[in-house]
Design brief:
The protein is of the alpha/beta class. It folds into 2 domains: 156 residues, Tetratricopeptide repeat domain (Serine Threonine Protein Phosphatase 5, Tetratricopeptide repeat), CATH 1.25.40.10; 193 residues, Vaccinia Virus protein VP39 (Rossmann fold). Helices cover 52% and strands 19% of the residues. The strands form 2 sheets. It has a 7-stranded mixed β-sheet with strand order 3-2-1-4-5-9-8, with helices on both faces. Strands 6-7 form a two-stranded antiparallel sheet. It starts with 6 loop residues before the first helix and ends with a strand. 43% of the residues are buried.
């Protein structure tokens, strides 16, 4: 006969099972508390340690996830899941070497972990190992891990020009970045696009403006004195909430730039896109939408990564798009805009160097 569980072990199992239920229900913070309760009663259980790490990861706490996951693999070196989640946590913290080592250990134990192949591919791409990154993305794609995203990464590594990134990429990138967005951009990367664009708008007042890809609302306080009504638009829910919290906007909506411009019934006198088109790619749809919603004489202004690519625009290894002056002039002609001003200034610091930027102010031509 099997001996019955002790009261302590039974209580720990109850905590653990409740944690699994909460994790499955999308409540990672509450799940983490349950796994912590189980470990307080029965320390060192690899299953509880692994799931505590997973819960903290899903709660957006990679730094807090590392310790239980490391403890899990120390106790159970053959735990492929724990190694895989440890790789994810370390990658999110920018610890590339240890993350690559953890990913390799996970995949040696269990080669069908699509997420870990994707993490390994990202890390290899970041350190410049293009061949290795392509091979890892192909493995993730073969296992159907976020296939649209893997195809886009592969296109970028092979020098192709996919016209736009998957929405999930942009939304996930900025949802994860929202909490530290302003400080990192302004203090670390010396980002000044909002100020430079706003300077080019001085001397005129606008009845209604739309801040495209408003992010956390860095443009809002600069535009507010120039406009009667200011709306914002962003794809990432966390960014939408951050922009609303500034109080600078009359309304902030969630949505895709080109899709919103094609569908909205509102009309504007000013459209601003600070460092937004680097995540859009081909700009035909944006210009068509801008021409649709701007009143005659209205202004479209934006910043870009400056490109000399002969085809007009390119997807760079940074996974950001860059656009050339000739491409912008061509789109302006096609969609009824006059190019009022164009200037070149650094966008931000990138890999320790100023990144060349292109700033444009266009005016919607009067309709015939």
């Amino acid at each position: 006969m099997t001996a019955p569980d002790s009261p302590t072990l039974a209580q720990a199992r109850s905590f653990f099972e409740r944690g699994l239920q909460l994790l499955q229900a999308g409540q990672p913070a509450a799940a983490a508390a349950q796994f912590e309760g189980a470990l307080a009663l029965v320390p060192g259980r690899p299953s509880a340690l692994t799931n505590l790490g997973v819960a903290r990861l899903e709660a957006g706490q990679p730094a807090q996830a590392v310790e239980p996951l490391q403890e899990a693999v120390d106790a159970e070196p053959g735990n492929a899941d724990a190694w895989g989640h440890l790789a994810v946590a370390l990658a999110q913290l920018g610890r590339r070497g240890p993350a690559l080592e953890a990913a390799g250990r996970a995949l040696a134990l269990q080669p069908r972990l699509g997420r870990v192949w994707a993490v390994q591919a990202d890390l290899l791409r970041e350190i410049g190992d293009t061949a290795g990154a392509i091979a890892a993305h192909e493995q993730a794609l073969a296992l159907q891990w976020e296939p649209a995203l893997q195809r886009w990464y592969l296109d970028s590594l092979r020098g192709l020009r996919p016209p736009a990134p998957p929405e999930a990429y942009v939304r996930g990138l900025f949802d994860g970045y929202a909490a530290d967005f302003d400080r990192h951009l302004v203090e670390v990367l010396q980002y000044r696009a909002p100020q430079l664009l706003a300077q080019g708008l001085q001397g005129r007042r606008y009845a209604a403006a739309l801040d495209l890809g408003c992010g956390t609302g860095l443009c809002g306080p600069l535009l507010r004195p120039l406009v009667d009504r200011l709306d914002g638009l962003d794809l990432a829910p966390a960014m939408v909430e951050a922009a609303r919290a500034t109080g600078a906007y009359d309304e902030v909506l969630q949505g895709d730039v080109a899709g919103h411009l094609a569908a909205t019934q509102r009309r504007y006198d000013l459209l601003v896109a600070a460092d937004v088109f680097i995540y859009v790619g081909a700009l035909d749809g944006v210009f068509a939408g801008a021409a649709r919603v701007l009143r005659p004489g209205g202004t479209l202004c934006f910043s870009l990564e400056d490109s000399t690519a002969p085809q007009g625009w390119e997807l760079r290894p940074s996974l950001r798009y860059a656009h050339g002056e000739a491409y912008i002039r061509s789109l302006a002609d096609q969609h009824g805009f006059n190019l009022r001003a164009l200037s070149r200034h650094p966008l931000r610091i990138d890999r320790g160097q100023p990144l060349p930027g292109l700033y444009a102010w266009l005016e919607r031509q009067p309709t015939a």
